[in-house]
From TrEMBL:
Reactions catalysed, as given in the entry: a quinol + 2 Fe(III)-[cytochrome c](out) = a quinone + 2 Fe(II)-[cytochrome c](out) + 2 H(+)(out)
Subcellular locations according to the entry: Cell membrane
Cross-referenced InterPro entries: bc1_cytC-su, Cyt_c-like_dom, Cyt_c-like_dom_sf, Cytochrome_c_Oxidase_Subunit
Stated name of the protein: Cytochrome bc1 complex cytochrome c subunit
Membrane topology: Multi-pass membrane protein
Pfam families: Cytochrom_C (PF00034), Cytochrome_CBB3 (PF13442)
Length: 261
């Protein structure tokens, strides 16, 4: 065999190839991976204001360190998004203990106070941040695509029209009409109550914006077909058909009987 035709491979060649492959893979993932739709970080002053507000208003249930008590869950790791959702929708503070915190008719705290408390809770441990406003508006969203995502992931609990529905043990999926886009995003991001978590790796920020666009479109469309009957599907529709349909048939039969007599 010709010695010139045989070339020895350097022992480090495989190691170098593997290292180059890892570098290229890491760089590609960093460039293409979904970005978290997070807002700006909090200052030390804001965190301290939030701590004072928390001690005054929330520590009774969640403990002075936010790590929970027999009547309130541990808040370490829930993130600022969970605080903004629960307090921004009036669910917290709860009026009384229950299996589920209902949406409040009014919000107890100002937006600034909620942001301060959220900043302090976020400082306890890493968690989902309040999303950027770019992704919490219906503008730029694809309502048609959002409807597809909603029907696949959300309609089994909230119903395809977002009218809500009953769950087990007294819990329920709330209706989604007149809900701010930011709170819709935060609910998907944090999974409140019995809702699963749809983080930005499961459903991207752009797709969440599409879902918000779909729900806002449903709000604006109303019920062009007539009475919505709660948008609860075939059960109320069947009930109406039976009650009115049978009533008309019975009335017609009585009228014919009287006429024949």
């Amino acid at each position: 065999m010709n010695a010139l035709a045989v070339r020895r491979r350097h022992p480090a060649a495989i190691f170098i190839l593997l290292l180059l492959g890892l570098i290229v893979t890491g760089a590609g993932y960093a460039a293409l991976a979904p970005k978290q739709a997070t807002a700006a970080t909090a200052s030390a002053d804001q965190i301290e204001r939030g701590r004072q507000l928390f001690l005054t208003n929330c520590a009774t249930c969640h403990g002075k360190d936010g790590l929970g008590s027999p009547v309130g869950p541990n808040l370490a790791g829930v993130g600022a998004a969970a605080v903004d959702f629960q307090m921004g929708t009036g669910r917290m503070p709860m009026a009384e203990p229950g299996v589920q915190a209902p949406r409040g008719k009014k919000v107890t705290y100002s937006a600034e106070e909620i942001a301060d408390i959220a900043a302090w809770v976020a400082s306890l441990a890493p968690g989902p941040a309040v999303p950027d406003a770019e992704y919490t508006t219906a503008e730029g969203g694809n309502a048609g695509r959002g409807g597809e995502i909603f029907r696949v992931n959300c309609s089994m609990c909230h119903n395809s029209a977002g009218a809500g529905g009953a769950l087990t043990r007294g819990k329920y999926a709330p209706k989604l009409t007149d809900v701010e886009g930011q709170h819709i995003y935060e609910a998907m991001l944090t999974g409140p109550q019995s809702m699963p978590v749809f983080n930005d790796n499961n459903i991207s920020p752009e797709s969440k914006r599409d879902v918000i666009a779909y729900l806002k479109t449903m709000d604006e469309a109303g019920s062009p077909g007539g009475m919505a009957l709660g948008s609860l599907g075939p059960v109320p529709e069947g009930l109406v058909a039976w009650v009115f349909g049978l009533g008309i048939l019975i009335g017609a039969a009585y009228w014919l009987g009287q006429k024949g007599a």
